[in-house]
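Input structure tokens:
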């Protein structure tokens, strides 16, 4: 099989769109898509929908409350991995680096702004029939924003430090793109240095409820104090990633329902009462797609880019699969080693061990899909995922951001609350 080539419609590339990949089955044939990449993107979307809607009923697949790894924690790395892999096809040959940089930055900015609109709080959820958001409370970061950050970093790596080596198994799995791995190592080093080295002092935040021992009333809100004064803490309350987001973004612009509220020590009564034993930080917002963790997340995109380089450089299926398996095995080994020496698997902080293990998992999954779909020809079996991959951004907008739910809620009988969504949630919640 000859190397993948760049199709004319790649100029319209955006992460999650899926209109960029092309391959040829012969030198004179028409361009065709790399089906396994569409399937992988569709699988990521399907997993996201599954864990979003079934996670509340099947906690074992929902996000881990803090440390740990569950099915839902694989979705974000899969998105980042496939975005990076696609870039190797998009920027195989760059004639004008300035123009390519401008276009990549503009595309990332569009995706970032779309994320703010969809996940910043403008659209209501299934329990609210209003829309609009207080600009003082809008959430600046989210899923699409993180993908856009990882995308633009990986794109700039590919544009300014292109992969120049030709495929040769003797080079080893990590020698195809020295500059890319140097950048990935630099990002990881900066991330670890700040995560473990930055001092986190005590901090305060405003909340609607009162825990007498750690709060003081002021008007219509309560001021909570979180005791820290530590360095290198990776708990929910005193990690440096949260501190950076509070200082730069502001407490009011962070995610208001962090996963750590599901921890045992953060249990709140079914009536919404807060027990005195509940730590104050359980009521604080936290951004799981924050600034510091985005540095580590961007490395996942670079790893995906590395897998794309193997796709472009190696012409033989066996060489590609061997390279991917070797790379994935190396990454997962390093990730397990870091876990054993004390770096926890944590999606909210996007720890280095988590990044390596999930990136390796993405590599194994993509390798399997490549074998099943593009080599062994089981394309019809994966057609639903392929279709979802081709329309991934539209599905994300409609499903993941409640646009579809909003449209359904628009049809009601007699009064707005009497709608299908309310009936279903009431029935399932029994």
């Amino acid at each position: 099989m000859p190397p993948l080539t760049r199709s004319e419609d790649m100029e319209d590339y955006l992460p999650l769109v899926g209109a960029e990949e092309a391959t040829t089955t012969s030198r004179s044939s028409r361009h065709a898509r790399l089906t396994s990449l569409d399937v992988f993107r569709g699988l990521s979307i399907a997993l996201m929908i599954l864990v979003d809607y079934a996670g509340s009923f099947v906690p074992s697949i929902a996000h881990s409350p803090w440390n740990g790894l569950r099915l839902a924690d694989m979705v974000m790395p899969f998105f980042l991995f496939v975005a990076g892999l696609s870039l190797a096809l998009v920027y195989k040959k760059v004639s004008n680096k300035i123009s390519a940089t401008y276009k990549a930055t503009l595309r990332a900015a569009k995706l970032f702004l779309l994320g703010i609109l969809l996940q910043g709080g403008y659209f209501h959820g299934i329990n609210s029939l209003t829309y609009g958001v207080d600009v003082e409370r809008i959430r600046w970061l989210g899923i699409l924003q993180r993908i856009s950050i990882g995308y633009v970093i990986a794109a700039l790596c590919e544009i300014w430090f292109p992969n120049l080596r030709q495929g040769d198994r003797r080079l080893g799995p990590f020698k195809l793109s020295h500059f890319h791995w140097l950048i990935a190592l630099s990002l990881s080093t900066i991330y670890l240095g700040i995560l473990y080295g930055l001092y986190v002092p005590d901090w305060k935040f405003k909340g609607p409820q009162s825990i007498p021992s750690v709060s003081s009333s002021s008007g219509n809100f309560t001021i909570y104090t979180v005791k820290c004064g530590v360095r290198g803490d990776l708990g929910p309350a005193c990690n440096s990633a949260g501190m950076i987001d509070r200082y730069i973004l502001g407490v009011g612009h962070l995610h208001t329902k962090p996963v750590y509220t599901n921890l045992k020590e953060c249990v709140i009564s079914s009536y919404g009462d807060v027990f005195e034993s509940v730590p104050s930080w359980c009521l604080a917002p936290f951004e799981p797609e924050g600034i510091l963790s985005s540095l580590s997340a961007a490395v996942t995109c670079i790893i995906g880019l590395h897998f794309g380089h193997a796709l472009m450089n190696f012409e033989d299926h066996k060489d590609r699969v061997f390279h991917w398996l070797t790379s994935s095995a190396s990454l997962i080994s390093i990730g397990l080693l870091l876990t054993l020496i004390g770096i926890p698997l944590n999606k909210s902080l996007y720890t280095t061990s988590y990044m390596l293990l999930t990136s390796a998992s993405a590599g194994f999954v993509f390798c399997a899909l490549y074998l099943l779909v593009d080599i062994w020809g089981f394309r019809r079996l994966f057609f639903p995922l392929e279709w979802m991959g081709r329309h991934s951004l539209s599905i994300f907008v409609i499903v993941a951001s409640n646009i579809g739910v909003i449209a359904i809620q628009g049809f009601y009988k007699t009064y707005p609350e009497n709608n299908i969504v309310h009936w279903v949630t009431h029935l399932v919640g029994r």
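The first strand starts at residue 199 and ends at 200. Confidence is low (pLDDT under 50) at residues 1-14, 19-32.
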